[in-house]
Amino acid sequence: MTLLQKEYNDVSYISGPLLFVNAASDLAYNAIVNIKDGNGRIRGGQVIEVSDDHAVIQIFEDTRGLDLATASVSLVEDVARLGVSKDMIGRRFDGLGRPIDGLPNVIADKRLSINGQAMNPASRAKPEEFIQTGISTIDINTSLIRGQKLPIFSGSGLPHNELAAQIARQSKVPGSDEPFAVVFAAMGLTQREVSFFTQEFERTGALARAVLFLNKADDPTVERILTPRMALTTAEYLAFEHGYHVLVILTDLTNYCEALREIGGAREEIPGRRGFPGYMYTDLASLYERAGVIQGKPGSVTQIPILSMPDDDITHPIPDLTGYITEGQIVVDRTLNSKGIFPPINPLPSLSRLMGNGIGKGKTRADHKNVSDQLFAAYANGLDLRKLVAITGEDALTENDKLFLRFAEDFENYFIGQGGQDRSIEDSMTVAWGILSKLPQSQLTRIGKDSIDKYYGTKVDEMWKGNRM
User: Fold this and answer.
1) Topology of domain 81-358, per CATH?
2) What are the φ/ψ torsions at residue 184 (nearest 5 degrees)?
3) Residues in domain ATPase F1/V1/A1 complex alpha/beta subunit nucleotide-binding (predicted)?
4) Distance from the first to the final alpha carbon of the chain
């Protein structure tokens, strides 16, 4: 519904996706507008800056054919909104929330601002319920907890898309009959990647409990800025209006930040680190902080943002700022990937700061934390010995050293390298004990005697077949 019939005709300047309008100080920040050209074509846009002299509008489509003399601007809505409904589950949308699956528009129950509402810190509940991803390295070593924001740090050419699809397909809350949904938002995809995600979700049946927002690389830059906000608005509605436990997967945040930099350049802003806007920390926080659990409400929003680190540089501004805001990271490793191990997640630089809240007796298993610590220590020891062997040769090692060296191989091939298997937490613990049982009991210094007596000697040979891609 049009809120205001007034038109603004004094368009003074067009720069890339930006349009500058004079004498439009009564337009509101974040308002949605229509831009009409001389041929009657209408494009959408959003107000991103207002001053006494002019307003700056981001245009959602290309600006070809727009003429300063004939273009006019009219208000549509006071703020960017998305029509939401439970019927969105099982549907595919573009980055602006328009259906791309050939089905009719969703009949909206509500129209919500895509900027969301900040959660009152006093109303936040402590995240302490385990989410099972079916991936051993995540579930055992960097456990995901409801309401957490746990990013995946990847790199160019690494299989983070395949990992994202596997997490979306397998994630569940074990032992719970509460509704669970996945909201998947992809930004800057190639056509091949769009086809991959579409086919993967449909082939595996994961689409039945998912909402997909797919923004392509050739879509307007500004659409990439709105896509994660569309997804998070949908997630908040499903979680806090209908009690769903929602897992939000955002990929690739690097493309999102590149869009921020492009828009900042068009606005002639003073650049910050590596040319990115100085407000990028605040902007990313406005996305990541929309995860959480609210006291008195049954649902939750959990986030797994995925970003590809330029040049595998973890100190780059995008992963660096993400690390400040989020509660850990899952690191995809290029060396493991080169060995054909999938998913190539390296547990040593990975971390889940909320892991301790959601594991242990009555949640996963009583020996979970100790087994995780022991795996970490033994694998780190094995990698150190690999470096030593490269210098001195294996003959210089003691028998115990050789066992740790073999442990590192088994850990990579059978625990990390599970391929496309969907492992329950019990399956993952069984594989972990099977590998640890190849070490002498005296070397299991992180695990209590009761657990050793109960699980040491576990055999899992049948689970070790066909785990590598």
Assistant:
1) Rossmann fold (3.40.50)
2) -115, 120
3) 134-352
4) 53
C-alpha–C-alpha distance, residues 414 and 123, integer Å: 42
pTM of the model: 0.90
Q: Is the pLDDT of residue 305 over 90?
A: yes
Q: What tens digit of pLDDT does each residue of 99-113 get?
A: 999 999 999 999 999
Q: Which two tokens stand for residue 299?
A: 């649902």
Class of the 7-77 domain? mainly beta
**Confidence band of 244 (pLDDT split at 50, 70, 90):** very high
Q: Give the chain's largest Cα–Cα span.
A: 84
Q: Is 49 helix (H, G, I), strand (E, B) or coil?
A: strand
Q: Which helix (H) or strand (E) holds 215?
A: strand 210-216
Spatial separation of the C-alpha atoms in residues 433 and 375, rounded to whole Å: 9
367-467: which CATH number, 1.10.4030, 3.40.50, 1.10.1140, 3.30.70? 1.10.1140
Domain boundaries, the chain: 7-77, 81-358, 367-467
Picking from 296, 292, 356, 351, the residue whose alpha carbon sits closest to that of residue 126 is 292
Task: Indicate the pairing of strand 245-251 with strand 180-189.
Answer: parallel
By 3-state DSSP, what share of the chain in percent is helix, strand and coil, each rounded to 5? 40, 25, 35
Q: How far is CA 306 from the centre of its chain?
A: 4
